[in-house]
Write a structure and sequence with these properties.
The protein contains 21 helices and 11 strands. It is an alpha+beta fold. It has 3 domains: 115 residues, no CATH class; 66 residues, no CATH class; 252 residues, Fido-like domain (Fic-like fold), CATH 1.10.3290.10. The radius of gyration is 32 Å and the shape is elongated. It starts with 15 loop residues before the first strand and ends in an 18-residue tail after the last helix.
Length: 496
């Protein structure tokens, strides 16, 4: 490769690189070196700084130094995999000859290999290149031995592919594979491409591949699942097995009381999801049969939850385990959302969904994650513990395009009804605390705030008398249940 012409620059005595200087400046630096005004770090690199500062100097100017000493080199192997940084004090470079070069504080391992290839990019405009993603993946599948191996190996590459898939979607992997296929003969890495091709096929579920990581095996399973979410479910299940939870008995024991309870459960459950009605208006079309004139779809959302909260066939239907859970949830969702054909009632999502910064399980992993997660349910004590486990499973997978939060709370309450425990109502003023605890559990795996909040609201729900709809609504209003602002209001406990 032709060297770029040297440019005359004003020398900086802190670090002088002959490769960056014109001939006159090089000769001047050499005279100062003989006069002991400068010190030679390595041939072609001089400085006026004392020896104890050299490692920090090389670290700070690493790209400049490497580009000057090894023009046309390409950062390679594990150094490229780690973003262009040394690994255990060693920097791996593809170069025209193999050699180990020691710099202050940095070992440079030159590996005989091709120079810049299509997709490689110059670093800071210099003659040091960072490889394309296909190249760094291929190189890191090469066989290497020794105490510090130059490549990170199959498991790390597999995990990187899963990360790319999760961050940018499955569609990002096919172009990457095509680029690697074209690049492999140029680099002499055809064997490595066969490995990479198999790993990508395993992640995409198009090929049966021998995956080596837990996440990879999960994605290549007969029904692929989200290994990270399953680990989160297992952690929650372990907590629920070891921590006894409060379980107040059912308080709505007559047909009237159960009807009133089901109305308030459905009203608040829909309010959480943004379906906001005045409680008197909702009471009119749910309990009193008034015609639905305005917002028919929103009204039917409340009716769908009300129907499943009241009908024993739904209200006592505990969550199945294994593959039967798929058909069960589809049937429940189809009934719940039957007046909303635009959200595909009963059909699992085909596009990724999210809430704020939380991304839920991808469509391809939805079925498997539900199947594997549901297998944990029998290991958790029946009642409150299993109710919270079931609710979090459905909420965290978010298997449908819409209605997931309402579905999760119906599933939760069915686990309570079947053991004759009070169902749970999440009032409007408790909405943010409820969602905050779910987010904390999702992002940090910390279940304690979630368990504390749900036990608190469980006892709050059980403290009302549901025989009179006027009385229970008045009582909840007196406790600020219908308010929205946590800064202005506090959720009060009803007087006994």
């Amino acid at each position: 490769m032709d060297r770029a012409p040297k440019k005359a620059t004003a020398p900086d005595d802190t670090l002088l690189l002959y490769a960056e200087l014109g001939a006159a400046d090089v000769r001047a630096a050499q005279r100062r070196l003989r006069a002991a005004e400068l010190h030679r770090v390595v041939p072609g690199v001089v400085t006026n700084r004392p020896r104890d500062e050299w490692p920090a100097l090389i670290a700070r100017e690493r790209i400049r130094v490497l580009a000057a000493l090894f023009p046309g080199a390409v950062i390679g192997y594990r150094s490229a995999f780690q973003g262009g940084t040394p690994s255990e004090g060693t920097m791996f470079l593809n170069y025209s000859y193999p050699r180990k070069v020691e710099l202050p504080g940095l070992s440079v391992q030159l590996v005989r290999g091709p120079g810049p290839a299509p997709g490689d990019a110059p670093m800071m405009g210099r003659e040091l290149y960072f490889p394309s993603v296909p190249r760094l993946l291929l190189e890191n599948l090469t066989v290497s031995r020794g105490k510090l191996r130059k490549s990170v190996g199959q498991a790390a590459v597999e995990q990187r592919l899963i990360g790319i898939c999760e961050a940018r979607g499955e569609e990002a992997l096919s172009p990457l594979r095509d680029e690697a296929r074209a690049l492999a003969p140029v680099l002499g890495l055809e064997r490595e491409f066969e490995l990479l091709d198999g790993l990508i096929g395993g992640v995409l579920g198009t090929r049966r591949a021998a995956m080596s990581t837990a996440a990879g095996k999960a994605m290549a399973a007969a029904i692929p699942y989200d290994a990270h979410r399953l680990a989160l479910f297992e952690s929650l299940a372990a907590t629920l097995r070891s921590q006894p939870l409060k379980q107040p008995p059912a308080v709505a024991k007559t047909e009237t009381g159960r009807t009133n309870f089901a109305f308030l459960e459905s009203y608040f459950s829909n309010f959480i999801e943004g379906t906001e009605f005045d409680v008197a208006e909702a009471r009119g079309f749910v309990l009193e049969g008034r015609p639905i004139v305005e917002r028919p779809k929103d009204s039917h959302d409340i009716l769908g939850v009300f129907r499943q909260a009241l009908d024993p066939g739904w209200s006592h239907q505990t969550l199945a385990t294994g593959e039967p859970v798929l058909q069960q949830l589809r049937a429940r969702h189809a009934d719940q959302m039957r007046e909303r054909p635009e959200v595909a009632p009963g059909e699992f999502k085909t596009a990724a969904n999210r809430a704020g910064n939380t991304e839920f399980v991808t469509p391809r992993l939805t079925r498997g994650t539900l199947v594997e997660g549901s297998k944990l349910l029998p290991t958790v004590p029946a009642g409150t513990a299993r109710a919270l486990m079931a609710m979090f499973l459905v909420s965290e997978v978010h298997p449908f395009a819409d209605g997931n939060g309402r579905l999760a709370r119906l599933v939760m309450n069915a686990e309570l009804s079947v053991v004759n425990s009070c169902r749970i109502i999440i009032p409007t003023l408790f909405r943010e605390e409820y969602l905050d605890c779910l987010r904390l559990l999702t992002r940090e795996g910390n279940a304690q705030p979630f368990l504390a909040a749900m036990q608190q609201i469980h006892e709050w729900t059980a403290a009302f008398d549901y025989e009179s709809i006027e009385g229970v609504i008045a009582g909840m209003k007196a406790c600020n249940a219908f308010e929205k602002s946590r800064t202005q209001f506090k959720l009060l406990v009803p007087a006994r």
